[in-house]
Amino acid sequence: MKTRNIIILIIAVIVIIAGVGVWIISSNKSNESNDTNNTNTNENVTNNEEIENTTNEDNTANKETTDNKKIAVIYFSATGTTEKVAGYIKNATDGDLIEIEPKEKYTDNDLNYSNGETRATKEQNDPSARPEISNDIDTDSYDVIFLGYPIWWGTSPKIILTFLDNHNLDGKTVIPFCTSGSSGIDSSVNYFKNNYKNINWLEGKRLTTSESEVTDWVNSLNY
What we know:
Elements: H1 2-67, E1 71-75, H2 81-93, E2 96-99, H3 119-125, E3 144-150, H4 158-165, E4 173-179, H5 186-195, E5 200-201, E6 205-206, H6 211-220
Parallel strand pairs: 1-2, 1-3, 3-4, 4-5, 4-6
Helix pairs in contact: 2-6
């Protein structure tokens, strides 16, 4: 009887020792798995941080390049539409907003497209017309100029040519933009490129009064 009890006790001890051994092995494997997961997680975090840092460095470099250039948003607006768009560009670029002010302001009658005797009609049909500008505009201080205007009779108002004739923009980057119910910007930009060849003209765009559209366009430019 005593021998039997001793055998049972020995078997119990062996079972307990085996169980402890299995538990220890299982715990070690679990810790190794956790260590591996932690290592992978840390590596992923590090890789993500490196990607974010690279992206931030690129954005910072682009911003520094833009910040080093002084920007002006120069525009003519008879009805306020182009003025609104110019304001959006000013916000997107943090540039200086400058209005081209005609010495004689345009009235609704002046802009009557159906009357061939109106002031604007006569100006647009006269190749030599250069309406006077009342305010002094400094362009020497700027590297980049956004130049805005409405489309009149398929092209830019003649007061824009007054501005271009009287300011030396040679070597500067000029980005034209316009507002229009239907006509595009191509005719006016082609005239600018053919007659003011020393200016670095970037591709222009006809814009609506959607601030998001204007901002997206400005952010897409490489100037």
